[in-house]
Amino acid sequence: MRKPYFRPCAGAPLPLRTLVTRTVRFEEVDPLGIVWHGRYPSYLEDGRVALGRQYGLGYMDFYHQGVMAPIKQMHLDYQLPLRFEEEFTIEALLHWSDATRLNHEFVLRNSAEQVITTGYTIQLLTDPQQRVLLVPPAFYEDFRQRWRAGELV
Fold this sequence. Notes:
Blueprint: E1 16-23, H1 40-55, H2 59-64, E2 71-78, E3 87-95, E4 101-110, E5 115-124, H3 138-148
Antiparallel strand pairs: 1-3, 2-5, 3-4, 4-5
């Protein structure tokens, strides 16, 4: 059992989840026939985009509110390789945070359900001038209230 990336906050709602299925494309593999390690951030992006779309918290939702969500931190733990034409899933989770940030966790599994890669990203919320927001914008606070009330799970 691996150590969790994010410690649960007392009284926090369960993480939000989504699942994306992908197939490794030829352009993603190196001469050894395995996915090059530098491709994995785009897999995390696939998970973040799907999760945002599912819960109404996508990049364009932020953009239309005048809020940016740049990546502050990214971490990956590689377990097993992926190969050309291999099907895999990306499980993306959004963990609750009392801070004005997005804590995403990712678990990539092959078709045998083996964990191949895990990781996380942390995104801060900023205004268009890239000043960090310390208070959640109204639309994000509304989202958090609906999440806490169990309306999103």
